[in-house]
Design a protein that fits this description.
Layout lengths: L7 E3 L18 E3 L18 E3 L18 E3 L18 E3 L18 E3 L18 E3 L24 E5 L4 E5 H21 L1
Parallel strand pairs: 1-2, 2-3, 3-4, 4-5, 5-6, 6-7
Antiparallel strand pairs: 8-9
Length: about 200
């Protein structure tokens, strides 16, 4: 059928589009930013590698079948409630301003960058995201982040304030305080290892 071999589609800033054709089964790159009427992206697009769908308020579902996703930006999709735990290949996730999302799935083991600005219901980020290097977040969001091993302390600070983890408690501090804490922990670990 028409466009069945289409791999790249940009339909951003379209006020009338309501859905993406399910026949675009070879689509790998989909950009649909600021499409206020867009209600659905079909689950049949199993080859999606990059999906950028920022500020699509009518879009409510991110399908678990998109297991090949490497990058997902659904910033401003206020009706999305769940990020599927099948996205085992995803490396970059921006779900900022998704006001119904309550948690980040545990199985995103390849995730490197996570953006969670203005997520009022988000209360949980798992301790299994071992590849995670950075979290970008606004200064007034406070999350519960479980303890993780010493070697997995996040040290890549994006801006403003940043969450990091220690053995003892989960807190947020200013950037300078975090840098000092990380420096202390590294020194402590080095001295500890030398004594063993």
């Amino acid at each position: 059928s028409t466009f069945i071999n289409l791999e790249y589609l940009d339909c951003s800033y379209n006020n009338s589009i309501q859905s993406i054709p399910s026949t675009f089964i070879n689509l790998e790159y989909l950009y649909c930013n600021e499409c206020p009427s867009l209600q659905s992206i079909p689950s049949t697009l199993i080859n999606l590698f990059k999906l950028i769908c920022q500020y699509c308020p009518s879009l409510s579902t991110i399908h678990k079948e998109w297991v090949n996703l490497n990058e997902l930006e659904c910033n401003g999709c206020s009706n999305i409630q769940i990020i599927p735990d099948t996205f085992i290949n995803i490396k970059r996730l921006d779900c900022s301003n998704c006001c119904k999302i309550e948690y980040i799935p545990k199985n995103l083991n390849k995730l490197i960058q996570l953006y969670v600005n203005n997520n009022p219901l988000l209360t949980y980020i798992p301790n299994t995201l071992e590849s995670l290097e950075s979290i970008q977040r606004e200064k007034y969001l406070y999350l519960y982040i479980p303890k993780i091993p010493f070697d997995s302390i996040y040290t890549n600070i994006i801006y403003g304030k940043f969450f990091y983890r220690t053995y003892h408690k989960n807190i947020s501090e200013d950037v300078d305080a975090i840098k000092n804490k990380v420096r202390f922990l590294r020194t402590f670990k080095k001295d500890y290892n030398q004594k063993q």
